[in-house]
Amino acid sequence: MTQRDDTKPKAGAIIVPVTPFEQNCTILWCEATRKAVVFDPGGDVPVIADAIAKSGVTVEKIWLTHGHIDHVGGAAELREALGVPIEGPHLADKFLLDNVVESGARFGLTGVRNFAPDRWLDEGDRVEIGELSFDIFHCPGHSPGSVVFFNKEMRFAHVGDVLFNGSVGRTDLPGGSHATLIASIKDKLLPLGDDVGFICGHGAGSSFGQERMTNPFLTGEM
């Protein structure tokens, strides 16, 4: 038996900014199997499909961090095009997925659809793609049903709009709560370790340690 080279990366990812919101649609794959997942296909589905084709991976799932239009606007269309299931977000965001069309109209986004995922996610759930496994943390505050995907082995998380590089998710939308959001970050995410790197829903990623030390929303400066 050939010993596996643990120095090789276990996963690969590319970020595809979509819609006028410049939302980070992320294509993440298991290097061993080339099986992939699409995080938060917010729109511009042909652009996402082109990125998938160029990556040479096989998308088997769509994972949603939360239900806001810029993260889910293309989810139903992409599910239909690829024939794969949607997993997430938490059931508390059902009211957002039931009103995708209405929300899209407010922002001039056409061709979007209301939908339900094939699986709602909750605290303590686990999802897999290829040989990669992610634990689910329910982190409300930005939206009631926001979830974070955490891979312990790779020390990596996808946090959606819960936490940003130098900021946190806005909480002035329906169901938002700043106090709840900060509690989600401090009680659930930061204890996972300073070394955990993350991709977020907008802008550059960071690490939990960097944000713990410098993010003004976590240091008490804001």
Question: Can you describe what's shown?
Answer:
- This protein has 222 residues and is α+β, with helices and mostly antiparallel strands.
- It has a single domain (11-219), classed as Metallo-beta-lactamase, Chain A (4-Layer Sandwich), CATH 3.60.15.
- Helix content is 26%, strand content 26%.
- Strands 6-7-8-9-12-13 form a six-stranded mixed sheet. A five-stranded mixed sheet has the order 1-2-3-4-5, covered by helices on one side. A two-stranded antiparallel sheet has the order 10-11.
- A hairpin with an 8-residue loop joins strand 7 (132-138) and strand 8.
- The model has no long low-confidence stretch (mean pLDDT 95).
How are the elements arranged and paired?
Layout: E1 11-18, E2 23-30, E3 35-39, H1 45-55, E4 58-63, H2 69-72, H3 75-82, E5 86-87, H4 94-97, H5 100-106, E6 126-129, E7 132-138, E8 147-151, E9 156-158, E10 163-164, E11 167-168, H6 178-189, E12 197-199, E13 206-207, H7 208-214, H8 216-219
Parallel strand pairs: 3-4, 4-5, 9-12
Antiparallel strand pairs: 1-2, 2-3, 6-7, 7-8, 8-9, 10-11, 12-13
In short:
This protein has 222 residues and is α+β, with helices and mostly antiparallel strands. 26% of the residues lie in helices and 26% in strands. The protein contains eight helices and 13 strands.
